[in-house]
Amino acid sequence: MSLTRLDKLILVIVITIGLLSFAVVKQVSSHDSANEVVVKINSKKVASLAINYDKVYVFQNNGLKCWVEIKNKKIRIKKTKCPNKLCYKQGFISAPGDSIVCAPMRLIVTIPIKQKKVVDFVTR
Amino acid sequence: MLPANPKKLALFGIFLSLGLVLQAIENIYLPSMFIPGVKIGLANLITLLMLPFFGFFELGLAVLLRVVLSSFFSGTFLSMAFYFSLSGATISFLVMYVLYKTLHKRLSYAGISLAGALFHNIAQLMVAVLVVGSWAVLIQLPILILSAILTGLFLGIVGNILSQQLEDIISYEL
Question: Which of A70-74, A114-118, B64-68, B107-111 is the most confident on average?
Fold first, then answer.
């Protein structure tokens, strides 16, 4: 149970390396955020919106209408005329790969992942 | 490379089989918990406990045999998991051996095991970088280092407790 002074030194060094690596990874991974939002209706891409400008866009389909808001690099459905309002209730999305789906309108708002989303590798 | 002294050879075999059993237990009952790549590394405890009794080549052989034989048990011989485990085991063994030989008077098993666990994970991640061909794998580094701290410290403390008992028994036997 007894840790010597050198043990504690190694522990401190390892914890420091851990924290440093955490900071570095955080720094590096924050750079590759997406810069556009893709809107699809009936599985067809109808618009690609710049994420850097705060703006509200309107889309309609199937006689329904919704307002897509971009604010501080986050996206949400600000207002919708669809019956169950699930898309509105989802709130803001911001991470690549996230998406908001409105089934009645057959609308998908998604933040694309830059690389193709394939499995890199499976061990075993 | 095998120990010439028959008693030492028997001890070698006992340690090797203990390591294999621990490895098998871990493979069956504790498969990579929660996060891929995070394991306790129970078998490393055996490498740790073997340090005072064997030389460099004997220890290296024990580590190599354990990796190869346990890959037979789990059916991963020459698969990617095998190379990950081989690289990790080799590097962590080298680190632990050097630390033990140079500093063992001022270092308990906790420190040795901690450094071993750290380098084990780093080596595996480096192999993963080579295999996947992308530095993106390094995103796992903080998690792996955290797990190395927890498991390394845990095994080191267990090693500290066991080694006191063990050294009395074995030095008497040899």
Answer: B64-68
The complex scores an ipTM of 0.71
Task: Give me the CATH number covering residue B20.
Answer: 1.10.1760.20
Alpha carbon B158 to its chain's center: 14
Q: How far apart are the first and last CA of chain A?
A: 36
Tens-digit pLDDT profile for residues B114-159: 999 999 999 988 998 888 777 777 778 888 888 889 899 999 999 9
* Cross-strand pairs, A64: A61
Smallest CA–CA distance from A13 into chain B, residue: B115
Is residue B82 in a domain? yes
Per DSSP, helices labelled H in chain B are: 6-29, 44-50, 56-74, 80-103, 109-132, 141-173
CA pair distance B105, A13, nearest whole angstrom:
19
When divided into structural domains, chain B yields a total of: 1
Partner-chain residue, chosen from B84, B114, B161, that has the shortest CB–CB distance to A10 = B114
User: B76: which chain A residues are within 8 Å (Cβ-Cβ)?
Assistant: 124
**B74 domain residue, yes or no:** yes
- Residue B94, domain extent: 6-173
What residues contact residue B113 under an 8 Å CB cut-off, 6+ apart?
Answer: B44, B45, B48, B96, B152, B153, B155, B156, B159
Domain assignment present for residue B1? The answer is no
Tens of pLDDT along B29-63? Answer: 776 666 666 788 888 899 989 888 888 999 999 99
